Structure formats: structure tokens, C-alpha cells
Amino acid sequence: MAETFFVNILIMLVSALALGEVFKRLKQPALVGHLLAGVIIGPSVFNVVQPDESLETLINLAIFFLMFLAGLELHPKEIKQAGKNAIILSILAFVIPFVSGAAVANFLGLSMIPSLFIGLALAITAVPVSAVVLMEFGLLKSKMGSTIMTAGIVDDILSLITLAIILQLAQSGGDLDFGELGFSAFKIGAFIGGIFLLTFILNKTKHWLPHKFSPLFAKLQTKEAGFGILLVSAIGLSLIAEGVGLHFIIGTFFAGLLVYQEIIGKESLGRINDVFSAITFGFLSPIFFAFIGMEFYAQSISESIPLFLILLGVAIAGKIGGGFIGGKLAGFSNAESRIIGYLVNSRGMVELVIATIGFELGIIDKTLFTVIVAVGFITTIMAPIMARIALRRISSQPASSVTNDKPPSE
Known about the structure:
The chain is mainly α and 410 residues long. Helix content is 78%, strand content 0%. It is globular, with a radius of gyration of 21 Å.
């Protein structure tokens, strides 16, 4: 078993890194190569590696590192500044594809609960995918990048609340337990409120707190002990998020967000960030995207191509349209709003998780499950390619909120 696991990891990593390098040389994002590597080695082409539980555990670890690193790259101040714009963007980027997806599914003959589930699957934004795209383009710290990331987190919260309602409707035959929903909403609100309170405390004590923490990290004798301490903290906050009914990635992202230069010192933060970055982009990220590619099984949608094309069109139009309108209302230019629409169009692993839940509970059948997975795969490949094309068109503009941390070709 262990030998098979490591052989699979070796095949996934080598193929993903090789194709990632090819696509970088073609001036395309490396993650597109990683995704296609998964398609080639997976059931769609050579069927060399198949997704299993051992790989899914590693994928969860990859998502954990991706989200923590995304939080680590941002500053609470940037998230706060994006607040109002991000809420506008998240609501429109969620509601438009959700309503349109559910309406189209119902029009095609599906009953209410499967239709709502389809709408939810089409409304999801894959925050880990957005994070990787933004980091690869050097846009994570830009006004647009922080807005997209904050909107993605809000989208995740909306998605989980909607999922809870749909699951309750499915289990009760259409009746809602408002008491249980109210308690869940209270727990989620308490968690988010606690995060904001902690951020407020850290901000108010930043003039003296760093003098307490920085020497502690500087004096640690165990090699990379600071990395371990932050890892434990992130895991703890992720478990709390799971405990209140949120996805663990929300806790992970906020854990990274709460660690910034003023708290642990510039040198310590830089060293820890380098470790996380090396592990994430050198090992976990390529495997994560290769796994998504492996979940795409082209042959299985041959009998449902019309349904697939209809839902794919609704997914793309709803998400890009919602992102564009949200971007415009948030004050971004037409070109920037289009980029926002392209980036929020990715779905990836989060959609796979929710689709699996619906399939296991009997809300959707095998055909719908396959279509949802295919839509997630196609839109995840489209997002970075379309965003790069749009970025090239506005790269010569002298004034823009698209401000890079590093050159876009990096």
C-alpha cells in the first residue's frame, strides 16, 4: 500500500512539474499544465493513477498549505480595505450563478432540491485556485487580489450556509428547522466575530506586542521551530472553523492572515514564508491540481453532452457576469472587472467535495455528479488562461488597481 502511494505521488509530481514547466515556457500559468498532467495520467487517457482515499488525505493537506500561504501573503489591513467591495462582489458572484443554475436545472426537468444543488455547485468559487492564480501573477497583494480573496472567503461561507439548508431540506422532505439553522448561524457569527476581535486586539497592541514575540522567535534553537508553532496554530484555528460548521480552509486562511510582520518580525516572517512557499509550490500545489485533473473522466460525459454544455454555459456566463457586475459596482474598471469575472469562475476542489456529498446522499445521480465535476475542471482551466490574456491587454495602462507584487511572467 505504501509503495503504491509513493509511486502514485512520484508519477503525479513528475508529470505535473514537467507539464507545468512546458506551459510556463509557453507563457501560460503552470497550474494549467498541472491540471492537464492529471488528465493524462488519470482515467481519461492512460489511467496510470486513480484517485483514492490516501491521495485525498494529501490533497486536504495541500489545500491547507495553499490557504495558509495565501493568508500569510496578505495583511489584515488589505482585507479590511477590501471589505465593502468584497461583499458586493461575493454576493453577486454567488447569487447570479446560483439562481440561474437552479432555474435552468429546474427548466430541464429536475426537481427542486437537485436543482438547488446544481445552482450551488455552479455558484462556488475555488478560493485555493484563486489564491494560486493570484500568487502566480503577482496580484495577491493588489487591491483587486485582496478583494477577490476576501470575496472568495465570503462566498465559501454563503456556500456552506446554503449547503446546510439544502441538506436539511433533503433530509426533512422540504421542511426547515429554523432553530437548528439559527444555532448554526450563531456559531458561524461567533467565529467570524472572534477573528475580527483578535485582529482588533493585535492591531491595538502592535506597538508593544512585537517586542514580546519577535525575541521569542529569534531565540528558538530548534531548527524551523517557528514554522512548527505557526503550523500548530493554523491547525487549531482550522479545527475550530470545522467545529462551528465552516470548511477548515476558512480557519486556515484567517490563521495565516493573523501572522504578519509587525507580530513576529520581518526576518522571522520571511524565513517562515520561504519554508511554506517551497513546500507548497514545489510539492503540494502540483499534486493538488493534478488530482483535480484526474477527477475529470471525459468518457463518462459522452452520454450527457447536451446537459453538460448547457450547465457549462450557465456556469461561465453566471460567474463571469456576476464577477463583472460586482467588480463594476465595487469601483473597478471594465478591464479589471472582466479579470475579476475570469478569476472567480474557477471552481476546483471545493466543488468536487460538495458534489461528492450530494452524490453520496442521493441528491444527484451519477450523471449529474459527472457533469458537475466536468464543469469544475473546464472552468478551473479557463480561469488562469482568460485572466492572463486580459492582463496582457491592460498591462500598459499607467494607472490601475492591478498592481503586481512581481512581474506577471513570473
